[in-house]
Amino acid sequence: MPEDLSPAAQFAAAAAAEAAASVAAVSVSGEAEAVADGALKHSGGEQAALSAAAALFESAADSAVGSDAESSSGRHARGKGGAIDLADTELFPSLGSAAKGSGGAAHTATAHTATAHTAASGKQQQQQQQQQQQRMTQVVDLPMTEGAVGETVRRIMEQTRAHIEVSHNRVGRMSTYLISGRREAVERAQRAVCAELAPQVTQVIQVPAAARGLVGGRAAAAVQEQTRTRVAVGRAATALRVGDGGGTFDVVDVHVTGDAAGVAAAVARLDAAADRATARRGERVGDVPREAHALLVGRGGETLRRLRAAHPQAQIHVPGPLSRDGAISVVGESRAACAACAAAVREAAAALLRAAHVTRVAVPKRQHQFVVGAGGRGLAEIAAATGCGVDVPAPGSADEHVTVRGPDAAACAAAAALVAARARATAVDAIDPADAHAAYARPGLYAARVLAYLADRGRLRRIEADHGVALRVPPPAQLHAALARGAGPRISVDITAADARAVAAARAALAALFAAFPPFHFNGIDVCPAVHAALAGPDGANVARLQAARSVYALLPPPGLAAVLVVYEGFSPDVARLPDAAAREAAVRALLRATLDELRAAAAAATDVWTGAVPPAVQRALDPRDPLLAGPAMRRGAAPDPDPDPESAAPSRYTAAALPPLAPGDVELRGLRPDVQRVAAELRRRADAAARLARRRAFSDRLPVPRHAVPHLAGRAGDAIRRAHDVTLEVEVEAVPSASAAAAPASASAHARLQGPRDAVAAAAAAVRALLDQLEDQTAETISVPAAIHPLLIGPAGRYARRLEEKYATRIRFAGSRRADSAPAADDGDAPLAPDQILIRGGRKGVAAAKAELLDLAAYELEHRHTLRFAVAAAAVPRIVGKAGARIAEIKAATGARIDLAEHDHHGPADVTTTVDVTVVGTRAAAEAARDAVQAIAAELDAQAEAVLDVPARHHRFLIGPGGARVRDLIRHAGGDPASCRVHFPRAAEPADWVRVKGDRAVVAALADRIAALVADRERMVTVPVPVPAAQHAFVIGRGGARLKDLQARYSVEIAVRRPAKKDAEDPDAVLVTGLPDDCAAAAAALRALVRDEATVTVPLALHRRLGGRGGSLWRRLRSELDVHADAARVDPAPPAAASEDHRPAEDAPDVVFRDPAAALAGLTADWVLRGEKPKLAQALALVDREIQAAAADAVAEARLRINPRLHRRIIGKQGATVIKIRDATACEITVPKRDSGSEWVVVSGPRSAIDLAIDLVNQAVEEHD
């Protein structure tokens, strides 16, 4: 290169040559220098050299970028931008001002200042250096694509303003993309190159089902946006077997599609997200051939055990030989463990297959099933015994060889021997039903008929049970399909058993059975499946009638098939009496024809046919699985759809060639009358609905739309018009080439197509025009709101912002939202928003109203989001929260503030040194009030104290008292409240000597002193026995224990009285008094004072029975008047009472019967024991003596009055008032029989002198109510 050029010119020429060489991936530096030299010779100036170098660079770049296009089209790509600007710092970043050189170069640069670039100023140099620092270069290696990349690269360069150089390595099939420019442009170009030029790959990973929410939905959308891939999360979970224990681990398949780098990045992000749910991982290893499964398990599971031992953090499950899912399940405790184990499984399987030995064993086809065994049990046993896998050809294959694959020749030989043994272990024979009737022309049809009949009647099962064999017969569906076709291949029955003799006997039985049913015993008819139920009758009554009358059995096919089979069973006496075989055959055929005629007539009578026109759109929407269309057979005319769905075009498999053809668009229903009417009504309803829908969409309109309004009509504004007017709104935009999209005018061709009723379309068109007029008045305004309250303005899931957009027909964009992160929309033209900015775009009025509402809402949120943060002791948190959160809820309701307590360890130590942060949010006044309330509660903790007292466990029951009464009294006496002061005792099963007291400090101190004093007193207590006669223990205790409780409370002692059951006590009269010595002495004295003197008196038994006993009047007088208690120490037994009078006496029996009760008790006595003070005891003895004398003087008499039981209640009176009055007036006892006793006798007993008065008073009480 000539040396008389300036440094700038020299650098330009060299840079052009280097760029051309790198872009074209060939060495063209010589050509560049030649061009530069030629330019210098002709022009003699450095400007010509610079221009020539630029032209060479442009030509080389165009040739490199368009090389692929040229190879396919044969045309040279040409540049579109004209000459390259040599002053462009993006294309030539290093071209600055001319450097100061020496010699002629410097002089030349100075001499040509008029034509060369002027020296840059210092400010320009600084800007160029900053631009140079902002530039970067990125290299992207991608697999070579088959198509052309030139046009794609040129378009990416125009869109991103980045420079891209492409080179191809055709040997390694790789393409290298050198991207340079500003950082933002390079990043955009790199994403575009990877998205458009990288080959698309798909990777399937399994993530735990528990992590579905972390990898799907918004998370998947974020990964797609970040990695430019497509992520599809499977709907159904797959259960992977965890080892051999029977447990499962659910995983979900996630399909990731994109370029290799993007897929790898997306998989890494998805795995990291799944790690937050669980560390366990599961993988389905489905690329291991089934032939390797048995080799992986090994003999006795040895190989699988070694694999599991090598990977203890993972569990492997190999499916069985006949498992539907042939994938191996690997479940690991971590992602790495699962991946390592899966890789080891693949490597081991490949190695075992490479080293495997293969042997083929010839086994008859019908014996393959015995090699497989039930459920593949035979294959599993062979694999477990030899470690070999056995491949059995498919049942439809003609190959009879079984392949054995094992680790070595010996194992293969052993497995082959087992295969042969299993094949020979079962005897097999076959019989063709048609062999018994070789002359019949259609053996396949006969076999299908006889086997279908015998299977339905259970005759084959009976042979299996009788001979201990297994019969292999085609399934009923296959047999009935052969009946429907009327012909078919020959069918044989396989007979298998362990004993060859049983097989032979079963074969003979089958042959005899086939011989008993010749072909003329069968006939058939095709009947529409929809009327089969009518042929059978209710509960099969018609079939049973035919069988009983003609010995003909009618066999109906499965649903959907038309072939009805009739079989003569050979029991008709009319046929059996015929001597000639030909005559019997003719009679059977006549019998079957008569049966078929009857069935045909019954089918015709039950069949109803409806034919109607159904619109093609309705016909295409018919689903054969629709329950509303179930029942009748449906036949359609010529299909309106040129390529109809065969399944939807034929809801029923029944077709009849003899039926007349239908007109196009017609539908025929054939079946039972109720089903046909129901389905016909449903088809008419659907046809009417389709016609109404067509009428609603009969009118359409097309409106021109400016291009800038397309996003609004295609977005929420268009949706609002659709919902408001119930029309179809479609936006049609003419395609604009991507290269000129930026230059497309705002009025580019676009139309809005409206379809619906005329009135609705007119209203919707007016709404569209109003929207367009509103968009003409579009404006944008940016407001500043603290970023912290942006989520509150947006609302949950954008609810509040969306409401404002719909209300004011505006578009609101927040900083940091997804739209703000991406490039601005074509109609925005706005720079990225600052973190605290909100952009509002729309009509002027709508923008102003939305702005005002947003600012008001922001002001409200700022006012109500005054935040105070402070700390409280962790021990005070339970007091602040309260029971079930009641106390903190009360503070929130009273102040209107929100209170948040930071998380803390509830189970750890909660002392005063541990604090918890509290955050209060609300208005300033509310926040301060809530803070003061919380701090006041926390301050109560300072006044709290806790004391642990050493109290022996034997005193705990005493301190607690009955129902906790004593401990509550102790708290009250100490000046506390049982609700705020707590005394905790150990559990009953815990022998601990402590008592914990919590509460106010002063109350705790006083309570501790009181408990200590009580315990000290308890330690000084003594027990003193006090002799009290056992007979007086009940008196000492008192009614309900009142006297004993009074003594214990008065003297602060515990008094224990022996129980009556302890008859063998050493001192049954002893009463134990426990307490302080002085208190025990006082209580013992009080007990002794309660002991009464005793006296015994003997009274006549008649007196005892009349005045004694606990309810006797004399005993009551002794207690009430003299405080003397009486007990019966001895009572002579009374003689048996005479039989009572008949409840229904004779008519002539007297109404009053007198009797002397003392006569029966003469000479019998009772001993009374009287207890009381001596003076009063003497008075009591005197009173008893007077009563004895009075009884002796005035004998007791008894009168029985016969009174109607309905009047007994008058004697008793209200609440017994009348009978009590009579008793008090006469001292006589009145005994009225019970209501349900049926007795009429009222007994009056008492002194003889008063008995008459008592009888008069009773009669008077009865007569007063008459």
| Proportion of residues in helical segments | 40-55%
Mean pLDDT over the full residue set:
77
Helix run count: 50
Apparent shape: extended
CATH architecture of the domain at 705-734 and 746-840: 2-Layer Sandwich
CATH class placement of the domain at 705-734 and 746-840: Alpha Beta
Structural class by sheet pairing and helices = alpha+beta
Strand content: 15-25%
Distance between the termini: 157 Å
Largest sheet: 4 strands, antiparallel
Question: How are the SSEs placed, and which strands pair?
Answer:
Elements: H1 7-24, H2 29-43, H3 46-65, H4 67-73, H5 104-111, H6 122-134, E1 135-143, H7 150-160, E2 163-169, E3 174-182, H8 183-197, E4 201-208, H9 212-215, H10 218-227, E5 230-233, E6 238-242, E7 247-258, H11 260-275, E8 281-285, H12 293-297, H13 302-310, E9 314-317, E10 328-332, H14 335-354, E11 357-362, H15 368-372, H16 377-386, E12 389-391, E13 401-406, H17 409-424, E14 427-431, H18 443-457, H19 459-467, E15 470-472, H20 476-485, E16 493-497, H21 500-516, E17 522-526, H22 532-536, H23 541-550, E18 552-555, E19 563-568, H24 573-576, H25 581-606, E20 607-613, H26 616-620, E21 633-636, H27 646-649, E22 666-672, H28 673-696, E23 699-704, H29 710-714, H30 716-725, E24 728-733, E25 750-756, H31 758-776, E26 778-784, H32 790-794, H33 799-808, E27 810-814, H34 818-821, E28 837-843, H35 844-863, E29 866-873, H36 877-881, H37 886-895, E30 898-901, E31 915-922, H38 924-939, E32 944-950, H39 956-960, H40 965-973, E33 982-984, E34 994-1000, H41 1001-1019, E35 1022-1027, H42 1033-1037, H43 1042-1051, E36 1054-1057, E37 1070-1075, ...
Antiparallel strand pairs: 1-3, 2-3, 4-7, 5-7, 6-7, 8-10, 9-10, 11-13, 12-13, 14-16, 15-16, 17-19, 18-19, 20-22, 21-22, 23-25, 24-25, 26-28, 27-28, 29-31, 30-31, 32-34, 33-34, 35-37, 36-37, 38-41, 39-41, 40-42, 42-44, 43-44
Helix pairs in contact: 1-2, 1-3, 2-3, 7-8, 10-11, 16-17, 18-20, 19-21, 30-31, 33-35, 37-38, 43-44, 49-50
Biased composition (Low complexity): 98-134, 630-640
Domain K Homology: 136-198, 199-275, 279-350, 355-424, 697-773, 777-859, 864-939, 943-1016, 1020-1092, 1093-1189, 1195-1263
Pfam families: KH_1 (PF00013), KH_Vigilin (PF24668)
